[in-house]
Structures are given as structure tokens and as C-alpha cells.
Design a protein that fits this description.
Blueprint: E1 3-5, E2 14-15, E3 20-21, E4 25-33, E5 39-49, E6 53-59, E7 61-66, E8 69-77, E9 83-93, E10 98-103, E11 112-115, E12 132-137, E13 152-155, H1 168-173, E14 181-182, E15 204-205, H2 210-215, H3 217-222, E16 227-230, E17 234-236, E18 244-250, H4 257-269, E19 273-276, H5 301-307, H6 322-329
Parallel strand pairs: 3-12, 13-16, 14-15, 16-19
Antiparallel strand pairs: 1-4, 2-4, 4-8, 5-6, 5-9, 7-8, 9-10, 9-12, 10-11, 17-18
């Protein structure tokens, strides 16, 4: 049985590893375990682009051979424009069969999994391409100097500090959504069951605020912290806020947009930079953009699919099929789009 071996984090298989500048030459290698005499040819297929992709392939040459394995390689120069380079392996055997090497999900896509069939996908950007990925960036791109050697402190805003002027009445007024759970006692155990109707939805809150973070800046600075990394802070349904509801509004439970500006100002006075975790790859179902629960005044994508009311945001989402649209119109729970 032929086994295709490849690792994205090893110079033995890919040199250089990691992201590369435009125009970089990369050497790709694969180790084929099995009888080399059974192998007719090996090709590296690739797709390159950003919104749309073009496909090609290169024949891989045998670099070395042992009794029960062979190592093959090829080199390709990355495009002059920034984009994503996806690749996978095809092995043709002398008896007419094929084997393919695609990323193994169990390894988070870092190692190859040998398959007896190729994976189906399109190159129009509508679906993920299931290949190994190389990020190709502009050579002029530079990370800020302050991040090099920075002492970073990560904060989960709901659980850090309420602040000395915390208004519990205001927080309770924001608990009017049926899935939300309020912890008046800061020392209570976190919820992991949720409420009976919907089960666990990460909707229990302790009331940490941006003002609470500001008050702790002297303490953080005294520890040598030079950068704060905040988990998402924009309006959302859940306590982790990775399901963004409105990209232009700080979550009311955390404070106001002015509070966030004040944090930036005061952190700068202490020599501390602030990094926000921006979640732009998806939105929450409970958002101004999708509006699954009719909680926002403008029509979202769901209102257009359900009621035919035009929305500025419908094009942000993909509905896989007519049956999927019917599911959204029904009573089934909607996952984060």
C-alpha cells in the first residue's frame, strides 16, 4: 500500500516553511512509502489566487530512492501578486490506479493523508480549497516594530474586572434575552449547561467592562506588560463575542465606544499598545447582518430569504442549496453563518 508523506512545518518537505514574499522559490517534497517500482508518475497540483483561482500542476522528479520508499521534489516560484497558494499531490501507479495526498484534518492540515480518490471542489472562491496552504504576501509588508519582543497580556473582557463604578442595574437590563444568564457573584462557577430550551450557548455573563480594564492599567504596566490582546469586544450574543452582531458598536455590557477610545488613550499613556481580536471571517446569526431572531431593525439576510425583504447583507452569505434555504425558513436552529 502506497503512503504519501508530507509536512508543512518541516524543511525536509517544504523549504522555506511558513508565509513567503511574492516571487519566492519554494521547494516541495514528498516521501512515498511503498515499492518505488510501482510508481508511474507524481504531480504536484496547485491553485493560486485570492477571490478566484487558477490551477496548474508540475511533475515531480525523483530525488532519491530506497528499497521501500522514494523521495520526490519540485520547485516553483510564487506569483508576483499576493494571494494564497494551495497544493496537493497526485501519484499515478503503473497499474492505472491513483493515490492523492491532501491535508489530514486530524493534524490540523499540517500532514498529508493518503486517499484513493481526489477531493471535489471549485475554483470560483465559493468553497474552501482542501489543499495545503502557503500565504504569499507583499515583500513591503512589515509588522510594527513595537510587537517585536512585546510582553503581551491577553484579556477575556467579560471575566477581567467590572470596575469600581460598575452599575449592576444597567447590566441586568441587558439580560432581557431569554438565553442569557447573569452571575451577580463574581466568584460563581461559569455555566456549562445553558437554559433548557437552547442548551449551552456561552451566554452567561459576569459583567467585566472596558472601564475595569482601564483601572487596572497601572497594575499591568507594573508587571512589564507592553501590549494588551483583547478577545472580541464588539456587540454580540455570546460572552466570547466571536459571533459579532455589529462591527461598529462596542458591546453595551462592556461600555460605550467612547470607553474604548479612553482605553486606547490611557493605555498609550502607560506605554501599552492595544490589539483587538477582529472577527471578520464570519458574523453571528444574531446580528444586524443576518438577523436570525429579528432583534435588529433593518432587514438582514434571513429576512430576505424568509420574507423576500431586500437586505444589503444577503450577498455576505452562501446558502448551499434550496433545501438549505428551506431549513433556515423552518424551525431548526441556525448555526453561525
Amino acid at each position: 500500500m502506497l503512503i504519501i508523506k508530507h509536512r508543512v512545518d518541516s524543511l525536509l518537505y517544504r523549504s522555506p516553511t511558513g508565509p513567503v514574499e511574492c516571487g519566492t522559490f519554494i521547494t516541495f517534497r514528498a516521501v512515498l512509502e511503498g515499492d518505488p517500482a510501482e510508481i508511474e508518475s507524481v504531480r504536484l497540483f496547485y491553485a493560486y489566487g485570492l477571490r478566484t483561482f487558477k490551477q496548474g500542476y508540475l511533475r515531480m522528479k525523483e530525488e532519491s530512492r530506497q528499497e521501500f520508499s522514494a523521495r520526490v521534489e519540485t520547485e516553483i516560484q510564487m506569483d508576483g501578486e499576493p494571494g494564497l497558494f494551495f497544493y496537493w499531490f497526485e501519484v499515478r501507479l503503473r497499474d492505472g490506479r491513483y493515490r492523492w495526498g491532501f491535508p489530514d484534518e486530524a493534524s490540523w492540515g499540517t500532514r498529508a493523508e493518503t486517499r484513493d480518490h481526489s477531493l471535489a471542489f471549485t475554483l470560483d472562491g465559493a468553497h474552501p480549497i482542501p489543499g495545503f496552504q502557503v500565504t504569499v504576501h507583499d515583500g513591503a509588508f512589515k509588522t510594527p516594530d513595537w510587537i517585536k519582543g512585546a510582553v503581551q497580556y491577553q484579556i477575556f473582557p467579560d471575566r477581567f474586572s467590572r470596575g469600581s463604578r460598575f452599575d449592576q442595574g444597567r447590566a441586568l437590563a441587558l439580560m432581557d434575552r431569554p438565553e442569557r444568564i447573569w452571575h451577580s457573584d463574581w466568584e460563581e462557577e461559569v455555566d456549562f449547561k445553558g437554559k433548557e430550551a437552547g442548551g449551552y450557548q456561552a451566554c452567561d455573563f459576569f459583567g467585566g467592562t472596558i472601564e475595569g480594564i482601564v483601572e487596572e492599567l497601572p497594575y499591568l504596566a507594573s508587571m512589564g506588560v507592553t501590549a494588551l490582546y483583547l478577545n472580541p469586544v464588539f456587540e454580540a450574543q455570546s460572552n466570547h463575542r466571536y459571533d459579532t452582531g455589529d462591527y461598529f458598536s462596542l458591546d453595551p455590557l462592556l461600555g460605550t465606544n467612547e470607553d474604548l477610545d479612553h482605553l486606547f488613550e490611557q493605555a498609550g499613556n502607560h506605554g501599552i499598545q492595544v490589539i483587538l481580536d477582529g472577527v471578520f471571517s464570519h458574523t453571528g446569526a444574531d446580528s444586524i447582518y443576518f438577523n436570525r431572531y429579528d432583534r435588529y431593525p433593518p432587514a438582514g439576510a434571513w429576512q430576505e430569504m424568509r420574507d423576500g425583504i431586500p437586505s444589503d447583507y444577503t450577498a455576505w452569505y452562501r446558502f448551499a442549496s434550496e433545501s438549505e434555504i428551506k431549513r433556515y425558513r423552518g424551525d431548526e436552529a441556525c448555526e453561525i453563518p
